[in-house]
Specification:
InterPro entries: EIF3C, EIF3C_N_dom, EIF3CL_C, PCI_dom, WH-like_DNA-bd_sf, WH_DNA-bd_sf. This is Eukaryotic translation initiation factor 3 subunit C. The protein is mostly helical and about 850 residues long. Helix 29 packs parallel to helix 33, helix 31 runs antiparallel to helix 32 and helix 34 packs across helix 35.
């Protein structure tokens, strides 16, 4: 410090500072060399001292030389004490001990006020401080005492909570839970000292045992450390390095510590997942016991799944294959080591020093985990991978081959859970077995029976011959229909909710795929799923739509045109087939889709190999609509008094658009072929219509193509006959059956049957003379235009009244019924007020009946069984 900034006497301040420096130097310098240097310096200053004696007479008694700067012993005792107090320096170890004591005091204060948030924070701080003090030796005794007191206080608090439940605030409860979780694990490292303290606390605290420091390793030269590390290098020339640059040593004893470290870092930022996977692969190589192998495999498979945890990306192919192989190894280990089981809800083993052993009275070593969750995730990752691959490439086919190995894993998982259920002492959740059977069902319900049979044979080859399934025995693996029936029946009995509904839909789909129409239709109707399917999740609704479409296609293959059209109407009539069947995302006009909704839509899409051909679906729907609509249009055109009805609005719009075209060239696609066939059928040219329908190439995708074409030709002949009769009935008095048989190349008995059915259903005002085999037409009273318009006005007025009454009933909550009965306008009176006398097809005022004795009453499948 500069002297210009000093206050008071400069000489006194300078002398005091010099005195302090010299007093310290005399205490520290005790060697002879330093004494000789001091003597030489005194001799050197003698000349100066002599010159000063003449001028300073009063200072003659004072010491001379450098010693004159030293304070006298008598005068400086108190000052020395102050100097020692201010210049006392604490070592780093003492400072750490003081910090430790302060933290312990903070924990004790937190106990007094029952502040567990403060205790948790101070406990974390305490553990960090004791690591620096411990230095590889024993922990400080005060720390051990604090641990014991804190554990006792925690147990008392938990006991009080159980006896007299008192609601703790959220912060306090979190702190208590944090301490509860950490203190058990932390105390294991100091168990010997804790036991000694609990045995005799006074003797433990008064013992003179010093902390035994761990001898520090002598630092080797860099080249020596490098050569030592070279001995442990792997084949690639590198080795795994942990924190601090130290090489990780993989031994059977260190497996659990490494796994604990990996589990704690899972999900954190800046975590190298690839490095963790490579570490666990090395740990599996050194694992010896089944418990070690099971723990490493479960952690390894979970780490691989983390690689595909992103919403947009799928799991890498090589890691998926590795996870599938590791799951197979895990199931094999569990099959061999029958005393080790992986089960949900088992207690976590937290001891990293040793593995659990079977105690007296125990049959199994329970490891917490869920095999079915691993299998479900593996299945989902395969689906995501197939969604991301272009289905028209060879890569998709190669990836699809992995489904066989995945099915084997699912099958082995089912056998494992069945084995667990055999032991009554184990509480195996029934839901786990239901979930894995549902996954197995999801992979076979849409496949032909031949493919299912091959899958089953390969699955049984992968397991040992001693194993058998109670649910699906080995003897039933040859029959695919029996296998599906067995799996679905098991889920019907042992599950409920969504899994049960999905099992029923899968069985209906499989039956419809194999032409079991009546069984599939009856199951669909008795399930009543159409009533509450809107309350299910999206994937179940998609499965319902797929099943409905498959039932409609099955009805078409059976020649049941009306049933097929009614079943497909709900899906194909909406114009949203892609979206409803999860086979593509529809870009809707005037509707903005958020990125989140678009992502969810893409996740719901089915892989390409599960798709139903939409072009074939449209072709079937339009063909069925043509066979129903063309005779109906002919009937409406020839009888103005017949109420106009529409079976398929989609087909009507297409037909109107096609008729408005000025020039129509030869048909190019499926829709054009059906429209051209419709025009030919309406004109009575049934051969031309048959040619157009048979020219559609999409029929080749259906099984037994020739039989389907034969069925269509027969249907077109019959509907052509009905269209001709509706169109030209007003122009005939009698018509020979033989003539009709020659025109449409039908057997006379078939013609008679068609005409009789039309007469009985009141579609045709005629009579059939079986003796002469002629059709005798009845001429009804021709209605004038005024009468026709009056009937139309009457129908519109009736419809308006019904609408008003429904609105009134809705607003008055049912009182409209009484009102309508008072003024005599009930539904029955209106229906009977008109009716007879109008003749022909309008007899009785009810809706006209259609061919086959079936009413067009709408609904997906309800009308299919009313015939």
């Amino acid at each position: 410090m500069s002297r210009f900034f000093r206050g008071g006497d400069d000489s006194s301040s300078e002398s005091s500072s010099d005195e302090e420096d010299l007093s310290l130097s005399e205490e520290e310098t005790t060697t002879k060399d330093q004494q000789s240097e001091d003597e030489s310096s005194d001799d050197f200053d003698d000349d100066e001292d002599e010159s000063e004696e003449s001028s300073d007479d009063d200072d003659g008694d004072k010491p001379k030389g450098l010693s004159r700067f030293l304070l006298d012993q008598d005068s400086s005792e108190s000052e020395e004490e102050d100097v020692e107090a201010t210049t006392k320096v604490k070592s780093a170890k003492d400072k750490r001990h003081d910090e430790l004591e302060a933290t312990i005091t903070g924990i004790q204060n937190g106990q007094k006020i029952n502040d567990w948030h403060l205790i948790a924070n101070e406990f974390d701080k305490l553990n960090r401080q004791v690591v620096k003090l411990q230095d590889g030796g024993k922990a400080p005794k005060s720390y051990i005492k604090c641990l014991v007191q804190l554990e006792d206080f925690m147990n008392e608090t938990i006991a009080k909570q159980k006896v007299t439940p008192k609601k703790m605030n959220a912060t306090n409860a979190r702190g208590l839970n944090a301490v509860k979780q950490k203190i058990k694990k932390n105390n294991k490292d100091y168990q010997e000292q804790i036991d000694a303290y609990r045995k005799d606390s006074d003797a433990f605290m008064e013992s003179d045992e010093e902390e035994v420091p761990v001898p520090k390793k002598v630092a080797k030269p860099k080249f020596e450390a490098f050569t030592a590390a070279d001995e442990d290098e792997d084949a690639s020339g590198f080795e795994t390095v942990g924190k601090g640059g130290k090489a990780l040593q993989f031994t059977p004893e260190s497996i659990f510590k490494h796994l604990r470290t990996i589990l704690e870092s899972r999900g954190k930022k800046n975590t190298d997942r690839q490095e963790q996977i490579s570490i666990m692969e090395k740990l599996f190589k050194v694992a010896e016991t089944p418990y070690q192998k099971i723990r490493v495999l479960m952690t390894l498979v979970s780490a691989r799944f983390d690689l595909g945890s992103g919403g947009a990306s799928s799991m890498p192919l090589e890691h998926w294959k590795s996870a599938e192989k590791e799951l197979g190894v895990l199931l094999h280990i569990l099959e061999v080591a029958k005393d080790h089981i992986v089960i949900e809800g088992a207690e976590e083993w937290e001891d990293d020093e040793r593995a659990p052993t079977l105690e007296e009275g125990q049959k199994y070593i329970k490891i917490p985990g869920s095999i079915v969750s691993y299998i479900e995730r593996l299945d989902d990752e395969l689906t995501r991978s197939l969604q991301a691959i272009d289905p028209h490439t060879s890569e998709y086919i190669e990836r699809l081959t992995d489904e066989g190995s995945l099915y084997n894993i699912i099958f082995q998982g089912q056998l494992y859970y069945e084995a667990l259920q055999k032991d009554a002492s184990l509480e195996v959740p029934q839901e786990s077995l239901n979930r894995i059977i549902q996954r197995r069902l999801d992979h076979v319900y849409y496949k032909p029976a031949q493919v299912v049979k091959i899958l089953e044979e390969n699955s049984w080859k992968q397991v040992s011959s001693s194993l058998d399934s109670k649910i699906t025995p080995r003897s039933q693996s040859e029959e695919a229909i029996q296998l599906i029936n067995t799996l679905c029946s098991y889920l019907f009995e042992n599950s409920e909710g969504i899994i049960r509904a999905r099992a029923m839909l899968c069985q209906i789909y499989f039956l419809a795929l194999h032409d079991e129409y009546y069984k599939a239709r009856d199951m669909m109707l008795t399930s009543h799923l159409q009533e509450n399917i809107a309350n299910f999740d999206i994937t179940s609704q998609i499965l319902y739509n797929r099943t409905l479409v498959q039932v409609g296609l099955c009805a078409f293959r059976k020649g049941l045109v009306y049933d097929a059209q009614n079943t497909l109407q709900e899906i194909c009539g909406s114009g949203r087939q892609k979206e409803l069947l999860a086979q593509g995302v529809m870009i809707q006009r005037f509707h903005q889709v958020t990125p989140e909704q678009e992502r969810l839509e893409k996740q719901r899409q089915l892989p390409f190999h599960m798709h139903i051909n939409l072009e074939l679906l449209e072709c079937v729907y339009l063909t069925c609509s043509m066979l129903l609509e063309i005779p109906l249009l002919a009937q409406t055109g020839s009888s103005p008094d017949v109420k106009k009805r529409v079976i398929s609005k989609t087909y009507r719009r297409m037909l109107e658009y096609h008729e408005r075209q000025i020039f129509t060239g030869p048909p190019e696609n499926t829709r054009d072929h059906v429209m051209q066939a419709s025009k030919a059928l309406a004109a009575g040219e049934w051969k031309k219509a048959t040619h157009f329908i048979h020219s559609i190439k999409i029929w080749d995708l259906m099984p037994s193509t020739e039989s389907i074409k034969t069925m269509l030709a027969k249907q077109i002949q019959e509907e052509g006959l009905r269209t001709y009769l509706f169109t030209y009935a007003p122009f005939y008095d009698t018509l020979a059956v033989e003539t009709l048989s020659g025109m449409f190349e039908l057997d006379s008995r078939k013609v008679s049957a068609v005409v009789s059915k039309m007469i009985s259903h009141e579609e045709l005002a005629a009579a059939l003379d079986q003796v002469t085999e002629t059709v005798i037409f009845r001429k009804g009273v021709e209605l004038s235009r005024l009468q026709s318009l009056a009937l139309t006005l009457s129908d519109k007025a009736s419809a308006l009244i019904e609408t008003n009454e429904r609105t009134l009933e809705h607003r008055t909550q049912g009182s409209a019924n009484a009102f309508s009965r008072k003024d005599g306008r009930g539904g029955g009176q209106r229906g009977g007020g008109r009716g007879g006398g109008r003749g022909g097809a309008r007899t009785g005022g009810g809706p006209p009946r259609q061919a086959g004795g079936t009413q067009f009453t709408g609904g997906a499948l309800g009308a299919a069984v009313r015939g």
